[in-house]
Amino acid sequence: MAFEKTAxxxxxxxxxxxxxxxxxxxxxxxxxxxxxxxxxxxxxDVAAGAVQERVRxxxxxxxxxxxxxxxxxKKEYDLQQREDNLTKEWPLHAQVYLKDMSWDEDEQCYxxxxxxxxxxxxxxxxxxxxxxxxxxxxxxxxxxxQ
Length: 146
Ligand SMILES: [Zn+2]
Known about the structure:
The protein is α+β, with helices and mostly antiparallel strands. The chain has two domains: 11-88, DnaJ domain (Helix Hairpins), CATH 1.10.287; 94-145, Roll (Microbial ribonuclease fold), CATH 3.10.660.10. The protein is 40% helix and 17% strand. The chain contains four helices and six strands. It has helices at residues 11-14, 23-37, 48-68, 71-89; strands spanning 94-97, 102-104, 109-113, 119-123, 132-134, 141-145. It has a three-stranded mixed sheet with strand order 1-6-5, with no helix packed on it. Strands 2-3-4 form a three-stranded antiparallel sheet, with no helix packed on it. The longest helix has 21 residues, at 48-68. Residues 10-81 form the J domain. This is DnaJ homolog subfamily C member 24. InterPro entries: DnaJ_domain (IPR001623), DPH_MB_dom (IPR007872), DPH_MB_sf (IPR036671), J_dom_sf (IPR036869).
């Protein structure tokens, strides 16, 4: 059976919050949204489709709070997010030290493999002038640090 990673939702976004928000701040935002979307708080003249959407939002908000309102699950989630971001961003706009690139003696240039299978290439003289290098295959860019 293939292992499928379930797409993680952005629980902070769902609460309209930032990862830097304190627990008190998160709770305040959660409570505000819950009041807004609570099924018991809906007026009778809301269309059926809108009611469904609100219930869906309410469940989402509740899930978000279950994770972010608990110190342990929040810590776990934050850690997971950080790891996801690292893999997602590498090497898009990554900063790479020139010394971490491989020197190609034949071509007289520095190279770094891109995750797409292509590579970043910069010649010795170019390193004096440019700091951004495009992948030769895809549109990813890295910044070279000296
Ligand atoms: Zn690439």
